[in-house]
Amino acid sequence: MFKRKIQMGGTILKTARCPEFQTPEGRQLAYDNIRRHEIDALVVIGGDGSLTGARIFAKEFNFPIIGLPGTIDNDLYGTDSTIGYDTALNTIMECVDKIRDTATSHERLFFIEVMGRDAGFLALNGAIASGAEAAIIPEISTQVDQLAELIQNGFRKSKNSSIVLVAESPVTGGAMGMAERVKNEYPGYDVRVSILGHLQRGGSPTAYDRILASRMGAAAIDALLDDQRNVMIGIQNDTIVYVPFTKAIKNDKPINQGLLDTLRRLSI
Ligand code: F6P
């Protein structure tokens, strides 16, 4: 019997990073399986990696594929939001709210690591949503002394604690790396680290994500019936758009400078 899945996170098909698919033999096997099961088209939901695989597969086998942007990182060009991002952001906000209780009670400086291997959307918007003092993101280089100045100003202005969100990217060095550097240079602070990890990748989706996924799913079917191919469904200004795979994959989605300014102004 058909069972509703709208309230579930994760993937019910169990599709995940598949090294075999990166080889021509692996893709041939995928094509043979698709043929055997009489599948005429695919809707591929995923981030950069999934859409890159989809693009190569569609080209090699001249097979109709439509992409849906599904990643908590929100780092796909051509769409204002990706499926899963809002849910992860809300999880981050709830976790930081809880950590703040210890930060204020014990007058501590917390570095909280959030996901975002190559992109700072979760860290930046998570910081604004949770009232954190700063976000360290791979797109912007952050010097320890700049960060320390900001934190010191905060403490001087009678804030007795600080929270900094750090994207887990190797560029930022993660929360551990950042905390070590600050501890070494400013031993006066009582520094703690919290890594949110895979908490951010699960759970029941928010209403926003459910509606977004439903709209995008319906648009993917319309696109296939319309004979469209090799496009990712996106959303821009609340309107469904069709973004060629090449554009969505090759272009970097820029961080909104206005959000960085907002965070700076709010943290003073
Ligand atoms: O690409 C999505 C993402 O959630 C990144 O933000 C994160 O860095 C990475 O996946 C974690 O991957 P894994 O679960 O394989 O450790």
Percent range of helical residues = 40-55%
Bound molecules: 6-O-phosphono-beta-D-fructofuranose
Give the radius of gyration. 21 Å
Number of strands: 8
Write the H/E string, N to C: HEHEHEHEHEHEHEEHH
Query: What is the overall shape?
Result: elongated
Largest sheet: 4 strands, mixed
The end-to-end distance, rounded to whole angstroms, is 56 Å
Beta-strand residue fraction: 15-25%
Structural class label: alpha/beta
Strand order of the largest sheet: 1-2-7-8
**Spans of at least 5 consecutive residues with low confidence:** none
* Number of contiguous helices: 9
Mean pLDDT: 92
Q: Descriptors for this entry?
A:
four-stranded mixed beta sheet, alpha/beta, binds 6-O-phosphono-beta-D-fructofuranose, four-stranded parallel beta sheet, 268 residues
Explained architecture:
There is one protein chain. The protein has 268 residues and is of the alpha/beta class. Helices cover 44% and strands 16% of the residues. The protein has nine helices and eight strands. Strands 1-2-7-8 form a four-stranded mixed beta sheet, sandwiched between helices. It has a four-stranded parallel beta sheet with strand order 4-5-3-6, sandwiched between helices. Strand 1, helix 2 and strand 2 form a beta-alpha-beta unit. The longest helix has 21 residues. The protein binds 6-O-phosphono-beta-D-fructofuranose (F6P).
